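Retry 2 of 3 after timeout on previous attempt. Resubmitting structure tokens to design endpoint.
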């Protein structure tokens, strides 16, 4: 085996390749959505050596799949008519202590 092959199969070579990939992606990607490949690769590399990182990556993956609804899931109390220029606000009645 040659010395170049041994370096190419080592951990420092992997880190250097991920760094170069990050630099290339920085200039090629123009505000595209999604996780860059270099970021995903560095995360997986960190998960190899750090015990809690794998759980963190799995948690983030699950969070991306869940719906994120705003509001209190109650019927709407207020209406805003932008075309008509009116807004109707219904304020809930204050409860009297018994």
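Retry 2 succeeded. Sequence:
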């Amino acid at each position: 085996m040659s010395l170049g092959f041994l370096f190419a199969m080592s951990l420092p070579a992997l880190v250097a390749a991920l760094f170069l990939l990050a630099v290339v992606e920085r200039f090629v990607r123009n505000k595209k959505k999604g996780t860059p490949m270099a970021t995903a690769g560095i995360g997986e590399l960190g998960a190899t050596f750090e015990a809690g990182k794998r759980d963190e990556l799995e948690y983030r993956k699950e969070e991306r799949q869940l719906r994120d609804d705003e509001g209190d899931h109650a019927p709407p109390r207020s209406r805003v008519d932008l075309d008509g220029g009116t807004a109707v606000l219904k304020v809930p009645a204050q409860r009297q202590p018994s």
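Attempt log closed. The chain has a mean pLDDT of 78.
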